[in-house]
Design brief:
Blueprint lengths: L16 E5 L2 E7 L4 E4 L3 E12 L34 E12 L5 E8 L3 E4 L3 E5 L3 E5 L14 E5 L1 E8 L4 E5 L4 E5 L3 E5 L3 E6 L17 E6 L2 E5 L14
Antiparallel strand pairs: 1-2, 2-5, 3-5, 3-8, 4-5, 6-11, 7-10, 7-14, 8-11, 9-10, 12-17, 13-16, 14-17, 15-16
């Protein structure tokens, strides 16, 4: 059979994390270290690979998931408890795993003891050596995106982030402000000062679509960068303004 379709064969390589194409991640497992991946993100694999649910703070306690006042919660939290910030599975064994999610664009980041804040829904995979904790943005309960599921990641290891389309990285310099639609922000340098504010004085600002307002935006100041995707989340649920 002849077709350009058949040109998209699996690439060879022994890199632990590599891109098969801009929307498909290839992970090489050597039988020693595990990889944490978004639940359900496996689209294909070779070799002897096991996929198991992730319910603990991490292998041998190396990962942590906590807020300022609360430790890691079970997969089915009781009423009033914060649900797990990441829905992950363990990938272990020997072979190659291919990961993807809704054909989103993928970006491999190597953390070397830096701190990076990412919205949890944009994380595809990460090394078990990376640590994280939930962070709160004042007033963030009003919006469905970064306000509810922001994680500060630290340590050393590889992190794979997803964006809907190719992102825009906005540098932030001391003494200057950068503003971005809260529904389009993927992540930012953790050292930045972040504030949530309405883009309009209209009390219906939380209803970003269907009004003349743009809704909520985040302002950043300090020294670092902000990652913005060319897409916005679905409208958040209506919540009362206080």
């Amino acid at each position: 059979m002849r077709s350009p379709l058949l040109d998209h064969t699996a690439l060879a390589g022994d890199e632990r994390f590599a891109l098969q194409n801009p929307q498909l991640l290839r992970v090489a497992l050597d039988g020693r270290a595990e990889v944490l991946a978004r639940s359900g993100a496996m689209v294909a694999h070779t070799g002897r690979v096991q996929f198991t649910g992730w319910t603990e703070p991490g292998r041998r306690g190396r990962n942590r998931q906590q807020s300022q006042h609360q430790q890691h919660q079970p997969q089915h939290p009781q009423a009033g408890q914060r649900p797990p910030a990441l829905d992950l599975m363990r990938c272990a064994g020997t072979g190659t795993v291919y990961l993807a999610n809704l054909a989103q664009h993928l970006h491999i980041l190597d953390l070397r003891r830096e701190r990076l804040t990412i919205t949890s829904s944009y994380i595809l995979a990460l090394d078990t050596t990376i640590q994280w904790q939930a962070v709160d943005i004042e007033g963030g309960e009003r919006i469905s995106g970064v306000g509810r599921h922001s994680l500060e990641l630290s340590g050393s290891g590889t992190l794979v982030v997803m964006t809907s389309g190719l992102p825009l990285v906005m540098p932030v310099r001391a003494g200057e402000y950068v503003y971005a639609d809260a529904d389009a922000v993927v992540g930012w340098s953790s050292a930045l000062d972040v504030q949530l504010q309405a883009q309009s004085s209209n009390t219906e600002a939380w209803r970003r679509r269907g009004t003349a307002t743009e809704g909520w935006e985040l302002s950043f100041t300090g020294d670092g960068f902000v990652i913005v995707q060319p897409s916005e989340l679905l409208p958040p649920q209506r919540v009362p303004v206080r």
